[in-house]
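Predict structure. Chain length: 108.
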Amino acid sequence: MKATLSNLRISPRKVRLVANLVKGKKVPEALAQLAFLTKRSAAPVAKLLNSAIASAKNQSVVGGNADNLVVKNITVNQGVTLKRMMPRAHGRAARINKRTSQVTITLQ
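Prediction complete.
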Protein backbone atom coordinates (compact mmCIF):
# COMPACT_ATOMS: atom_id res chain seq x y z
CA MET A 1 0.00 0.00 0.00
CA LYS A 2 1.23 3.45 -0.88
CA ALA A 3 0.51 6.99 0.34
CA THR A 4 2.11 10.29 -0.68
CA LEU A 5 2.37 13.75 0.83
CA SER A 6 3.26 16.67 -1.43
CA ASN A 7 4.56 20.14 -0.63
CA LEU A 8 5.27 19.66 3.07
CA ARG A 9 6.80 22.97 4.20
CA ILE A 10 9.72 21.37 6.02
CA SER A 11 13.07 20.84 4.36
CA PRO A 12 13.79 17.29 3.13
CA ARG A 13 16.91 17.00 5.25
CA LYS A 14 14.89 17.46 8.45
CA VAL A 15 12.12 15.08 7.35
CA ARG A 16 14.64 12.36 6.47
CA LEU A 17 15.79 12.26 10.11
CA VAL A 18 12.28 11.18 11.13
CA ALA A 19 11.76 8.92 8.11
CA ASN A 20 14.89 6.88 8.81
CA LEU A 21 13.70 6.13 12.36
CA VAL A 22 10.45 4.60 11.07
CA LYS A 23 11.74 2.65 8.07
CA GLY A 24 11.51 -1.13 8.44
CA LYS A 25 9.42 -1.13 11.63
CA LYS A 26 5.99 -2.61 12.26
CA VAL A 27 3.13 -0.13 12.07
CA PRO A 28 2.18 0.00 15.80
CA GLU A 29 5.83 0.41 16.75
CA ALA A 30 6.31 3.18 14.15
CA LEU A 31 3.19 5.06 15.33
CA ALA A 32 4.36 4.86 18.95
CA GLN A 33 7.77 6.21 18.02
CA LEU A 34 6.27 9.08 16.03
CA ALA A 35 3.86 9.96 18.85
CA PHE A 36 6.68 10.65 21.32
CA LEU A 37 9.19 12.22 18.93
CA THR A 38 9.82 15.94 19.48
CA LYS A 39 10.56 16.78 15.84
CA ARG A 40 8.13 19.02 13.93
CA SER A 41 7.97 16.62 10.98
CA ALA A 42 6.81 13.70 13.16
CA ALA A 43 3.14 14.77 13.10
CA PRO A 44 2.78 14.98 9.29
CA VAL A 45 4.62 11.66 8.84
CA ALA A 46 2.32 10.01 11.42
CA LYS A 47 -0.72 11.42 9.64
CA LEU A 48 0.57 10.05 6.32
CA LEU A 49 1.19 6.65 7.92
CA ASN A 50 -2.39 6.59 9.23
CA SER A 51 -3.58 7.44 5.73
CA ALA A 52 -1.63 4.50 4.29
CA ILE A 53 -3.09 2.19 6.94
CA ALA A 54 -6.64 3.35 6.13
CA SER A 55 -5.97 2.84 2.45
CA ALA A 56 -4.74 -0.71 3.11
CA LYS A 57 -7.86 -1.48 5.15
CA ASN A 58 -10.11 0.03 2.48
CA GLN A 59 -8.60 -2.14 -0.24
CA SER A 60 -8.94 -5.15 2.10
CA VAL A 61 -5.25 -5.94 1.91
CA VAL A 62 -5.02 -6.61 5.65
CA GLY A 63 -8.60 -7.59 6.39
CA GLY A 64 -9.11 -5.05 9.18
CA ASN A 65 -5.92 -5.90 11.12
CA ALA A 66 -3.11 -3.40 10.65
CA ASP A 67 -0.78 -4.96 13.23
CA ASN A 68 0.93 -7.20 10.68
CA LEU A 69 1.80 -4.33 8.31
CA VAL A 70 5.42 -3.18 8.04
CA VAL A 71 6.78 0.14 6.77
CA LYS A 72 8.61 -1.31 3.77
CA ASN A 73 9.98 1.95 2.42
CA ILE A 74 9.68 5.66 3.10
CA THR A 75 11.27 8.14 0.72
CA VAL A 76 11.68 11.88 1.12
CA ASN A 77 12.33 13.87 -2.03
CA GLN A 78 12.75 17.57 -2.59
CA GLY A 79 9.64 19.45 -3.71
CA VAL A 80 9.33 22.95 -5.10
CA THR A 81 11.49 25.66 -3.53
CA LEU A 82 9.92 28.99 -2.62
CA LYS A 83 12.40 31.76 -3.39
CA ARG A 84 12.26 34.86 -1.19
CA MET A 85 14.50 37.92 -0.90
CA MET A 86 15.87 39.57 2.23
CA PRO A 87 17.26 43.12 2.18
CA ARG A 88 20.93 43.42 3.09
CA ALA A 89 23.39 46.26 3.55
CA HIS A 90 24.19 48.81 0.78
CA GLY A 91 21.03 48.11 -1.21
CA ARG A 92 21.81 44.48 -1.88
CA ALA A 93 19.48 41.53 -1.52
CA ALA A 94 20.09 37.97 -0.39
CA ARG A 95 17.99 35.04 -1.51
CA ILE A 96 16.26 32.79 1.01
CA ASN A 97 15.23 29.32 -0.17
CA LYS A 98 12.20 27.89 1.60
CA ARG A 99 12.35 24.21 0.76
CA THR A 100 9.47 21.74 0.61
CA SER A 101 9.35 17.94 0.77
CA GLN A 102 7.50 15.12 -0.94
CA VAL A 103 7.11 12.05 1.26
CA THR A 104 6.07 8.58 0.01
CA ILE A 105 5.31 5.66 2.35
CA THR A 106 5.03 2.06 1.17
CA LEU A 107 3.53 -0.58 3.47
CA GLN A 108 3.84 -4.35 3.09
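Summary: Residues 42-58 form the longest helix (17 residues).
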